[in-house]
Amino acid sequence: MMMMMMMMMMVCWWSLMVVTGVLLFRLIQVYETVWKKPKRIRSTLSKQGIGGPTPAFLYGNVKEIQNMESESVLMVNKSEDEDEDGKTIQAISHHHWVRSTFPYLQRWTFDYGPMYMFSTGSQQHLYLSQPELIKELKLHKSLELGKPSYLSKALEPMLGNGIIKANGHQWAHQRRLIAPEFFLHKVKGMIGLMEECTMAMVKTWEIRLIESQGGVADLMIDQDLRSLSADIISRACFGSSYSQGKNIFAKLRVMQEAMSKPSLLFGLPNLKFLPTKSNREIWRLKREVEELILKVVKDRQEESQKDTGIYGKDLLEMILESAATDTELQKSTHDTHRFIVDNCKNIYFAGYETTALAASWTLMLLALYPEWQQRVRAEIVHNWGDKNLHQTSASIDLDKLRQLKTLTMVIQESLRLYAPSLVVAREAFADIKLGNLVVPKGIHIWNSIPALHRDPENWGSDANEFKPDRFAGGISEACKYPQAYVPFGYGSRLCVGQTFALIELKIILSILVSNFSFSLSPKYRHSPVYKMLLMPQHGMRLLVKKV
Question: What domains can be seen in the chain, in order of their start residue?
């Protein structure tokens, strides 16, 4: 009996020791995360003369951020109430909306200059806007600089651990696989497909114009452009028509709406692990999107087994081949499925939304500046000939696209003022040097694209104006520091689909402008907002008329 009691006491004592050890380990982890690491990072930057708003214990600058966001929402709502009569906006400002997007970055830049640090809980951030430091970031190709790891976790339902958010060797492997599919020689082979899809939309618009009064239709063009871009990416990269992938796009868009919160972007405290109504919706959409993608994959694998040869070597085929031959992935069916699904989600999301938005903003600008719209149309007539404007197919090729210098300038200026992405984010996974600046491990580096693209010291006093001819000599001569022009990001994490997107944009815009004229709808309300990308809050309503 005594022996049994002693054994029970020993078990209890060892259990207590284990629990105490675990608790002590957790406390050390919390101390390291909440206090020691942030203090080290801030001390390293402070010693180099970098200041910023004073953080509160545990919460950092969260309260200030929330207050400024609330004030910004009130200002936007007031502005919309004043314009609710729906009259056509006669003078659209290309910079006022920037103040309501991440207003704390604007305020702190005014208070602390072009470089400062701030905090969101345990996350420490460094804001940079000097062109010379952006140049250093562009040149930094090491895997020690990647996407913020906390952001990858927050965006996991949407993007998983695909090429957009992955880091280190996993990202490098995915880039080696995916990037070659978007090289110029591959994209050249997709031009006919892009043209065919766009001409199908032209026919749809022509029918709407016939049915409209006076031959003018008031269209929500961003919806049609989104469908067009989705059709192109589906057929070019996955060998399927939009009809097969439309459910995937629709569900990704709903998920994007649900996750479009600035608090997610900067790592503010959130309750993503709790079964709230919003989280349950996101989890459901994630599950359904992945099931749909696996259905596409299964259909492809069945066709491949039949050896019909109808698809060829598209991106999906390359992803499947890589998954089948990668020794690390082959250790787990789950890892294989994750690799396939995550990268498909990345291509579906990034491949259609950004291009559709870029085309929408560009057409809005051409509607607002009819003289530039006419210059683009006249250039197409001059270079391609009048006979090509209204044919079912104009047989576009790369040489013809290179002739469109004016359209190229318009696209570049549109991407300067209305780039779909609003921020560039990096995390330092080791201490790195940017010029004379030592950037400590664990810091999150932020660049505001609207701020870089509107800096009057770089672009001149007309930085907020639409002036495509500033790009007449190319990007290198458009401003003092061309490295500060970053619509597709920079460095090794430059968007792999940049070439594909620019060619797709030129094809879509050249066909649409040569077939239709555009003007602002009386119902158009200019309200760009951040929803993971820069989107027209009330849609892009334009009046469309046959040329």
Answer: 29-546 (1.10.630.10)
